[in-house]
Amino acid sequence: MQPALIETLGFAAATLTTLCWLPQAVQTIRTRDTRAISLWTQAMFASGIVLWLVYGLLIASWPLIGANAISLCLVSVILAMKLRHG
After folding, report:
1. 68 near 54, Cβ under 8 Å?
2. CA-to-CA dists, residue 79 to 5, 18, 59, 70, angstroms
3. What is the mean pLDDT of each run of 10 residues along the chain (86 residues)?
4. Distance between CA 72 and CA 70 in Å, rounded?
5. Does this model's pTM top 0.90?
6. If you write DSSP's letter for every residue of 13-31 in order, what string do you get?
7. Count of other CB atoms within 10 angstroms of residue 64
8. How many CB atoms are located within 10 Å of the residue 6 CB?
9. Is the dihedral of CA 41, 73, 7, 60 positive or negative?
10. If exposure means fewest CB atoms within 10 Å of the residue's CB, which of 57, 68, 78, 86 is most exposed?
């Protein structure tokens, strides 16, 4: 497989898995309702994203870096709202 096609595949996967958090973040900000969100799950997921981001930086993989940086921002908003509003 050609390297450019592999990178395109990575960017497509990164885009889809990153953007899936946008509706949840928007809804959480809008409603401030975090009762159905597990604090532990969000905290563990955010930790995993940090590790993926570090890994992406170490191997200089732009799909991993971009996707995880954006995902970390979105999940951090959700996590902060959960901590603030219970």
Report:
1. no
2. 35, 16, 28, 14
3. 87 88 91 92 94 96 89 93 89
4. 5
5. no
6. HHHHHHHTHHHHHHHHHHH
7. 20
8. 11
9. negative
10. 86
